[in-house]
Design the sequence.
C-alpha cells in the first residue's frame, strides 16, 4: 500500500460552484469531519443537483437520529449476530481501502428472522457499516480519499434462492438495500460477486432496481471460474490480504485457509435461538389489511395461558404515522401495566417490528391508535401473532426442517 496525502478533489468549474452552494445550504447541520469529500458523495449521488443533494442529506441525518446511529457502539446486539452473521475483513487493497468478505450462502435468513426482530437485524447492519466507515476514515488520513471506500467480495458459492422466496426475507433484503442506497452513497469502490450460480441472476435483477447507476457500475459478477475472478481481485488486492481458501496467502495462526479468526462464515442457526415460529417459508396468511378511521382505534386481544410464549408484531402504514402500544392485564389480580408505551411511530417510513416475552395468565392488548387524527384515516398492513409454547415450538421446528430436507432431496433427484 502506498501512503498518500488527502488532496482536494479535481472538479470542473460548475462542480466547484455546486459544491460551494451545497456547503452554504447545509452549513447548519455540518460537523467538523464533513469535508469536501463527504459533501461530494451526496452531490454525485444526485448528479450535482444541489437541491436534491440537500434533501437527501437532511433526510439521511433524520434517519440517523431515528435509528440512534451515533450511539450504536453502546448497543448490545443479540448474540446470534456475532455467531451467525457472515462477514469479515482481511485487510486492505493496494490503495488502503478496507476489504470486506461476505460468504453469502452462510446467511440463514429464515433463522435470523426467527431469532431477532427485523429492526435489530437492520440496526446490526448499520452498526457494521458504521464500524467500517470509521476504519475507512482513519485509513484516508494516511492513504487519501479513495481509502474511504470499500472493496467487497460476495462469495455466492452454494447460494440457494429458496430462502428469499419467503416474503419477510425478500422484504428485509430490499429494505437493507434501500437503506444503504439512501444513506451511504458513493462508498463502494469495487464489488466482486464470485461463484454466482445461474439462479443468482434472477434475484440480482430484482435487487438492482433499488441501486443507483454508480453502485451498479462498481459491481462485477463472476461464475464458478477462479481463473477469471482471481486475477481481477489480485489487480486490487495483494495475495497476503486474501484468504488462502480463495487463492491468496492469508491463513489463521493454525493454518486454517478460511481465516476463521477474521471471517464469520455463518451457517444454519440452531433452533434454541428462535424467538418466533411460522408454519412454512411461504406462510403469509398472518398479514391483514385494514383502514383505521380518523379519531378511532384498533384493539387486538391475546389471552396467554402458557409460559415460554412470545407476542410478535410487524406492521406498516401508508403515507402517515400511527400510535402503537401493548398493554398487559393480569387476569387473576386485575393488575394492569404498559408492556410497550403507546406513542406515535413512523411506520409509513419503515416497517415496525418487535416482540415481547409473555407471562402466563395474562391478557395482552395490542393498540393501533388513530384517535389523535381528526382528518386522516390510516391504511394499516399488520401481522400480530402469539407463538407456540417452547416445547411445541421445538416439535414444529423439527417438522419444518424435515420438510425442507425432503424438498432438497427431491430437487437433487430431479437434477440427476
Sequence:
Amino acid at each position: 500500500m502506498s501512503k498518500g496525502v488527502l488532496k482536494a478533489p479535481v472538479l470542473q468549474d460548475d462542480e466547484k460552484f455546486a459544491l460551494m452552494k451545497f456547503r452554504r445550504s447545509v452549513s447548519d447541520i455540518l460537523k467538523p469531519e464533513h469535508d469536501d469529500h463527504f459533501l461530494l458523495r451526496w452531490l454525485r449521488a444526485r448528479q450535482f443537483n444541489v437541491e436534491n443533494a440537500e434533501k437527501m442529506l437532511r433526510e439521511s441525518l433524520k434517519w440517523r437520529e431515528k435509528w440512534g446511529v451515533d450511539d450504536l457502539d453502546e448497543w448490545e446486539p443479540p448474540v446470534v449476530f456475532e455467531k451467525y452473521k457472515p462477514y469479515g475483513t482481511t485487510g486492505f487493497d493496494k490503495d488502503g481501502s478496507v476489504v470486506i468478505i461476505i460468504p453469502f450462502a452462510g446467511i440463514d435468513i429464515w433463522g435470523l428472522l426467527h431469532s431477532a426482530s427485523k429492526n435489530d437485524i437492520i440496526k446490526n447492519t448499520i452498526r457494521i457499516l458504521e464500524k467500517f466507515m470509521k476504519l475507512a476514515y482513519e485509513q484516508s488520513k494516511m492513504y487519501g480519499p479513495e481509502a474511504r471506500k470499500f472493496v467487497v467480495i460476495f462469495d455466492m458459492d452454494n447460494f440457494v434462492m429458496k430462502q428469499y422466496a419467503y416474503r419477510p426475507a425478500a422484504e428485509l433484503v430490499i429494505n437493507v438495500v434501500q437503506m444503504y442506497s439512501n444513506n451511504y452513497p458513493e462508498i463502494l469502490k469495487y464489488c466482486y460477486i464470485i461463484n454466482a450460480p445461474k439462479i443468482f441472476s434472477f434475484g440480482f435483477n430484482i435487487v438492482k432496481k433499488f441501486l443507483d447507476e454508480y453502485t451498479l457500475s462498481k459491481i462485477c459478477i463472476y461464475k464458478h471460474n477462479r481463473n477469471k475472478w482471481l486475477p481481477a481481485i489480485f489487480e486490487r488486492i495483494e495475495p497476503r490480504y486474501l484468504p488462502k481458501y480463495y487463492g491468496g496467502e492469508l491463513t489463521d495462526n493454525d493454518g486454517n485457509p478460511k481465516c476463521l479468526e477474521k471471517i464469520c462464515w455463518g451457517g444454519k442457526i440452531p433452533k434454541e435461538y428462535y424467538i418466533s415460529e411460522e408454519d412454512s417459508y411461504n406462510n403469509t396468511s398472518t398479514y391483514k389489511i385494514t383502514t383505521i378511521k380518523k379519531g378511532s382505534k384498533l384493539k387486538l386481544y391475546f389471552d396467554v395461558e402458557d409460559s415460554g410464549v412470545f407476542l410478535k408484531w410487524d406492521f406498516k402504514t401508508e403515507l402517515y404515522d400511527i400510535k402503537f402500544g401493548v398493554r398487559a392485564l393480569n387476569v387473576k389480580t386485575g393488575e394492569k401495566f404498559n408492556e410497550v408505551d403507546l406513542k406515535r411511530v413512523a411506520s409509513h417510513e419503515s416497517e415496525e417490528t418487535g416482540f415481547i416475552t409473555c407471562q402466563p395468565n395474562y391478557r395482552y392488548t395490542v393498540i393501533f391508535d388513530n384517535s389523535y387524527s381528526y382528518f386522516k384515516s390510516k391504511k394499516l398492513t399488520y401481522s400480530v401473532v402469539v407463538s407456540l409454547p417452547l416445547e411445541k415450538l421445538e416439535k414444529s421446528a423439527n417438522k419444518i426442517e424435515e420438510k425442507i430436507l425432503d424438498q432438497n432431496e427431491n430437487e437433487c433427484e430431479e437434477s440427476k
Observations:
- Residues 279-285, 390-416 have pLDDT under 50 and may be disordered.
- The domain at 288-393 is CATH 2.60.120.680 (Jelly Rolls).
- The first strand starts at residue 87 and ends at 92.
